[in-house]
Amino acid sequence: MRWLSEPLLAVDHLSMRFGGLVAINDLSFTVGRGDITALIGPNGAGKTTVFNCITGFYKPTSGRLALSHGGPADPAAVATLTRSDKKRTHGATPELFLLERMPDHAIASEARVARTFQNIRLFPGMTVLENLIVAQHKTLMAASDYSLGGILGLAKYRAAEHKALELARAWLEVVGLVERADDPAGDLPYGAQRRLEIARAMCTNPVLLCLDEPAAGLNNRESAELTRLLRGIRAQTGVSILLIEHDMSVVMDISDHVVVIEYGVKIADGTADAVKNDPKVIAAYLGVDDEEVAAAAAGSVRP
Amino acid sequence: MDYFVQQLINGLTLGSIYGLIAIGYTMVYGIIGMVNFAHGDVFMLAAFIALILFLMLTQLLGVGSLGLALLVVLVLGMALTSLWGWVIERLAYRPLRGSFRLAPLISAIGMSIFLSNFVQLVQGPRNKTLEPILSNVLVIPVGDGSVTLAEKQLLIMVVTAALLGVLWYVVRHTSLGRAQRACEQDRKMAALLGVDVDRTISLTFIIGAMLASVAGLLWMTYYGVVSFSDGFVPGVKAFTAAVLGGIGSLPGAVLGGLLIGLIETFWSAYFTIDYKDVAAFSILAIVLIFLPSGLLGRPDVEKV
Amino acid sequence: MGAPADALKRALIVGLVTLGLAFPIVALRTDANFSNQLVLTQRWGLAFTLAGIAFVAAFLLALVRPVGFERTTPGKTVTSTPPHPFLRYLPYIGLAFLLAYPFIALGISSAGGTGVLKLVDTYGIQILIYVLLGLGLNIILGLAGLLDLGFVAFYAVGAYSSALLTTTFGLSFWLVLPLAGILAAFWGVMISLPVLRLKGDYIAIVTLAFAEIVRLVLVNWVPVTGGYAGISSIPKPTLFGFSLGSEPGSLPYMLGFPPSPIYRLAFMYYLVLALALAAYWVTIRLRTLPVGRAWEAMREDEIACRSLGINTVTTKVTAFAAGAFFGGLAGAFFSAHYGFISPKSFEFLESAMIVAIVVLGGLGSMVGVAIAATVMIGGTELLRELGLLKAVFGPDFDPAQYRMMLFGLAMVMLMVWRPKGLIATREPTVRLKPPATRGAPAAVPAE
């Protein structure tokens, strides 16, 4: 129940409308620090829209997205920050961020929320290694004195680049792509591209990793590997993971906390076991993919 | 007051021509997402074809009736210009379909350079001036004064309106229009459902060229002067019109064309003629910055 | 087999279509007579000849490739093959050739070829100006993927600012050169700000519109720019205060060289070569810096960039500023070299040529830019020389127009033939393993 006792991100009365279409309606849930949280729901429920709001690609119509670094947020501090016109605190512990006020790149670089995409978005013409170096843009940019020192080849930049390469190599080892490091990312097979995208997101040193359908298009063996990979990443780095997933075997297997939404409204919220026996969830999934729900409810792994 | 109404008439005339060219841009952009940079030069070529056909009919074949001559020029010009449109698409754009995104645009720029220099080569670099035709004017009293409406201005507005009606019918109520709209939404899916995508795209280029042909004829009738370099500026302005109206939207292209025509005319009438193009281009920039989807275009939600 | 019959049928269609295309526009030429009326000249022979040529060409082509004219659908665009070893030495061979070029030109001309002045000026300096421009646009278009169809605006800003600063304030060329670059970079920032929110083709059109605005201001702001008359008598650059002409007091005169315009020309040649090499070197450095990698990443996927914390706004602004800087340098050099500038030199066609050079070179490839500039500019200049064309089209025929027509056609054909440009392989900015050991056991032990 870390999502109640030690929340990292509090999604508070989030709504998102596109013209007349209500994609998310007054949605509230929390993501626990160090948890693997799954956001599930039938197609068109608004899961990716929630992601896009959290990562700043959409500006929510209303609602608050409060993220805290280094400890649970004090409600009074969040309220104070909300009343001010500031985006974040500076130098407070815990450090607070109001994501709905921040531009997408600042959410990644300052609030340290990284994400992957439903349709993989690598830099296909650049090599696997370069993909991971680009992800360390912020650190390297500072070390290059915003290009002025870097262009002259100062030692400080060379040292920083060396460190970046070491980090990249470490992540390549985690996802098993060292051998492909110098190949264009677009040449990798599908499953490897998914793993690379996760490694790239991790190279930004996030506190929250948002994965949009990481198991989509993977076969059973690859799905099982993915599950292992995500567990390993969390164990190693302590990063909290929020994921959207349709593969119920993956969701039930690794999630500490499951949030179910339908038509932009939350219908269930709890542990995997609690959620899969929730009649509202079963109803929501019936007619959509009942086989999967039945399998999940029975607690069995999909054949 | 009468000065204002007079400028309104002049602006709408010019705007009708821009609108006709703009439709060619907007339809092609809608269906393959490409700025057909050579379209302005197709328009220029069409003006030349109209001029030559007109001279051929009146001088070589001795057609006496102006109305008959213009009708033949209209029909034959449309046929010949659409042949050009078809060949250009076939040779310069179709092989590049599915290639990287800049390739068709570069090819179109090359085609634009080719066409203007080709016309310069075969027709000579000098301006071609035709004696004025259809210059009888109707004098309409307005307030204290009066404004003039030339026959050719009337012709331009009537022809434009009639063509738009036909086009509207084609796009809304024929299988070609349905195929076009399907290709706009999702080309791959349209192909899977049995739409002949290549043919639909070809026909889109042909329709665009036909409208450019009419615009060329009207331009030739209105100004009586045409030069090989006349493709670029009207082309850019017509594209501006398409963007202003919302690219991909047919009524938008017409509305944009009329607005650009009016802005240009009023700017010249009330400020300075030197900077009339600056005004048109500045509007393009301002519209794109503050209203990226144009006046009638659908807002473009970024897909993440 | 019905192959020849099919080919004949196909060729017949092509011939008829060509005839249709040629019918009014080629077959009937309009000319004004003495009373300024338009009359038609009939040239049916020419139209039928063109149709005949198309027929024969199509027939032969159809026999060679009976399947059809279209290429098969392009396959996967990503290439992972390492670059041809020759390509790795090409820059060095090229550099040696460029350094020796004025002497080679001297050799050619003494062997009875074209005059050395022309070889150095038209082929050497002119091509290098385009290389410099191409390297500037390469940053914006090749690396950052922003299609700037108005690059000529930066060229114009550089040329006019340096011309005005030298003629009205008497500033030295060496001071004005960096100033022109900085001013152009400033304009790059100004122009990039409104286009930041735009995508793809919209950027192209807005930059084109801006360049037209710049040109129209140059044309109409007569008190400052001189309008169409332009600015003339722009002073020539000096070397440490010494003139490089042949008049008394100049450096060659004092060194006792015989009077000749070649010294200044050679000096200007090495100057523009130095500028181009500097641009080359700076781009190489920038590519390995975070800003350069962010440019390339933005070209590949802008949304992914933003998800990694890259501020794409500043990334675009820096790309425009850096590219415009080189455009400004090229402009300053251009005005100093020719001594005269007018809006005629900064029309859309120039932008189109620079874009063509960058795209045909292969987006992002600097060696490609150099090759494409040589082929496109040198090739079209060569066409000017061919007396043969005059023989075909009559003595009053101006080869310059023919040249641009072929230029446009070449752009289309090169795109169809090689949409990814001449050099389509991309050299990574960093490697985990040295390229020599690729495939072999890793040189760096993987623990």
Throw out a few tags for this protein:
heterotrimer, B: 304 residues, mainly alpha, two-stranded antiparallel sheet, C: 447 residues, ABC transporter involved in vitamin B12 uptake, BtuC, 2 domains, 17 helices, disordered C terminus
How does this model look, in words?
The complex is a heterotrimer of chains A (303), B (304) and C (447). Chain A is an alpha/beta fold and 303 residues long. Chain A contains 14 helices and 10 strands. In chain A, the strands form 2 sheets. Chain A has a 6-stranded mixed sheet with strand order 6-7-8-3-9-10, sandwiched between helices. A 4-stranded antiparallel sheet of chain A has the order 2-1-4-5, sandwiched between helices. Chain A starts with a helix and ends in a 6-residue tail after the last helix. In chain B, the strands form 2 sheets. Chain B has a two-stranded antiparallel ribbon with strand order 1-4. Chain B has a two-stranded antiparallel sheet with strand order 2-3. Chain B has a domain at 18-229. Chain B is built from 11 helices and 4 strands. With 304 residues, chain B is mainly alpha-helical. In chain C, a hairpin with a 5-residue loop joins strand 1 and strand 2 (38-42). Chain C is globular. In chain C, helix 4 (116-143) runs parallel beside helix 10 (262-287), helix 6 (173-195) runs antiparallel to helix 13 (312-338) and helix 14 (348-361) crosses helix 15 (366-385). Chain C has 447 residues and is an all-alpha fold. Chain C contains 17 helices and 2 strands. The N and C termini of chain C lie far apart (64 Å). Chain C has a two-stranded antiparallel sheet. Chains B and C meet through helix 2, helix 3, helix 4, strand 1 and helix 9 of B and helix 1, strand 1, strand 2, helix 7 and helix 14 of C.
